[in-house]
């Protein structure tokens, strides 16, 4: 006799979005998305956490972007195990072998990190993804939230090289997920921390046979980001150290779009965390394929960060507003941390709703086809509907609901994590990052255009 719990995961595991080829590989994955008996589903919270995910399929490859938050309450260990169980359920439903390659774990308190490490290591074993533990309390009050990326191993090879390095190879592409680990402040200044972190990251990349020439995306999680060290803000010292490091290392990525001859920088997020430590991570790409190119995007609404006047920092932040990767007929656009800035100035100070609106408008203009065409790719571009996931960093918890309402109205149903974190300027209330997947537009034959 069947019961309502016969297939308890199916309706909760349906993807929010399917991008590019639109095929998730599981034709019946949302066949029970509505309760045939009416009313709400009464699924025990120990089985599943709250989840949203996007399925991306192209060139025989399947990728998942997952956002998971526990619902059942209990201890930190209970919530962590519930989140891991939810990730497992999503992967099993794909009907093909999947592997998690990288995950970012947002925790409410640094004291909980050892427990999370123990549980993840017990579950993943030798297939431990690159894992970052970021002390940014989830805005919904849970003890943790997880953003994870998974890939089908039917066509891709995943190599787990250690706690700070994972590589993924597919069809002549080699993706490298690398981290320098977490640095406690100790006696180090923000400048010294940044210097050591980038040197450590360079060494990890070197162990994979890569260098900063291959890096497309960087994440920097800095404790006390807007606090002062003497008369200088910690984030400004991070920027000074990053500039000095980049000056010593070539950043001309090997697969630049034709006509790009100037030095470019990777997309980046620099965001605050609790404490005073520093964590760095990056994504790099190696390939000899001739149909792969990279394009650093700048925003027509904003001054390029590396051209900011000295009033913002002795040495300006060195990053691109986004990095677009063209692989065959598809474009992946990694969007840097974006805030309510027009030209170089903060706009709408004190108003979380208007700042969120402006931030999303900045992202919309950054990735639209007109901006791609302005920068040389006339057949590329994306919309907000092409976003696979977002992270939203909210400075003040009291602003969370208003910020979320704006995001949901503008973006619809999308995998998202909202974390409480200090943004790099005192007057900025929110920062948003994301990644978009889109297809290039095919030119119509002349006979069809006439």
How does this structure look, described?
The protein is 22% helix and 33% strand. With 450 residues, the protein is an alpha+beta fold. The protein has a six-stranded mixed β-sheet with strand order 1-2-3-6-4-5, with helices on one face. A six-stranded mixed β-sheet has the order 7-8-9-14-10-13. A six-stranded mixed β-sheet has the order 15-16-17-22-20-21. Helix 3 (190-207) packs across helix 4 and helix 5 runs parallel beside helix 7 (400-411). Mean pLDDT is 88; it is low at 1-9, 24-46 and 444-450.
Element layout with pairings:
Blueprint: E1 17-20, E2 50-58, E3 61-69, H1 76-92, E4 98-107, H2 113-124, E5 130-135, E6 144-152, E7 157-162, E8 165-170, E9 173-183, H3 190-207, E10 215-223, E11 228-229, E12 232-233, H4 234-247, E13 267-273, E14 278-287, E15 292-297, E16 322-327, E17 330-338, E18 341-342, E19 345-346, H5 352-367, H6 369-374, E20 387-394, H7 400-411, E21 416-420, E22 430-439, H8 446-449
Parallel strand pairs: 1-2, 4-5, 10-13, 20-21
Antiparallel strand pairs: 2-3, 3-6, 4-6, 7-8, 8-9, 9-14, 10-14, 11-12, 15-16, 16-17, 17-22, 18-19, 20-22
Helix pairs in contact: 1-2, 3-4, 5-7
């Amino acid at each position: 006799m069947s019961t309502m719990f016969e297939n308890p995961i199916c309706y909760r595991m349906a993807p929010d979005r399917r991008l590019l080829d639109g095929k998730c590989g599981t034709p019946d994955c949302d066949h029970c998305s509505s309760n045939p008996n009416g009313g709400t589903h009464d699924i025990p919270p120990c089985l599943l956490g709250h989840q949203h995910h996007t399925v991306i399929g192209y060139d025989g490859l399947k990728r998942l972007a997952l956002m998971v938050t526990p619902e059942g309450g209990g201890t930190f260990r209970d919530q962590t195990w519930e989140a891991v169980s939810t990730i497992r359920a999503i992967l099993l439903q794909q009907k093909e072998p999947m592997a998690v390659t990288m995950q970012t774990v947002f925790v409410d308190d640094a004291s909980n990190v050892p427990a999370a490490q123990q549980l993840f290591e017990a579950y993943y074993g030798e297939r431990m993804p690159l894992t970052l533990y970021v002390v940014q309390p989830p805005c919904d009050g849970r003890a943790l939230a997880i953003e994870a990326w998974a890939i089908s191993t039917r066509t891709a090879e995943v190599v787990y090289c250690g706690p700070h390095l994972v590589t993924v190879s597919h069809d002549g592409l080699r993706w490298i997920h690398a981290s320098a680990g977490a640095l406690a402040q100790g006696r180090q200044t923000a400048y010294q921390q940044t210097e050591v972190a980038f040197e450590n990251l360079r060494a990890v990349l070197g162990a994979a046979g890569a260098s900063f020439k291959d890096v497309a995306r960087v994440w920097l999680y800095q404790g006390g980001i807007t606090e002062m060290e003497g008369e200088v803000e910690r984030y400004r010292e991070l920027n000074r150290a990053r500039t000095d490091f980049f000056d010593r290392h070539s950043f001309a990525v090997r697969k630049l779009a034709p006509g790009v001859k100037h030095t470019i920088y990777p997309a980046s997020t620099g965001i605050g965390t609790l404490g005073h430590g520093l964590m760095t991570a990056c994504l790099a790409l190696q390939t000899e394929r001739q149909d792969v190119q990279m394009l650093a995007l700048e925003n027509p609404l904003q001054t390029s960060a590396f051209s900011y006047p000295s009033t913002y920092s002795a040495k300006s932040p060195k990053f691109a507003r986004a990095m677009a990767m063209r692989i065959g007929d598809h474009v992946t656009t990694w969007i840097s941390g974006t805030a309510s800035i027009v030209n170089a100035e903060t706009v709408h100070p004190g108003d979380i709703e208007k700042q969120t609106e402006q931030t999303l408008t900045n992202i919309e203009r950054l990735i639209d086809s007109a901006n791609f065409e302005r920068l040389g790719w006339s057949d590329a571009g994306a919309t907000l509907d092409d976003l696979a996931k977002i992270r939203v960093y909210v400075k003040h918890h009291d602003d969370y609901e208003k910020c979320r309402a704006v995001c949901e109205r503008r973006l619809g149903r999308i995998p998202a994590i909202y974390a409480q974190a200090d943004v790099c300027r005192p007057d900025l209330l929110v920062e948003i990052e994301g990644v978009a997947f889109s297809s290039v537009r095919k030119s119509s034959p002349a006979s069809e255009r006439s």
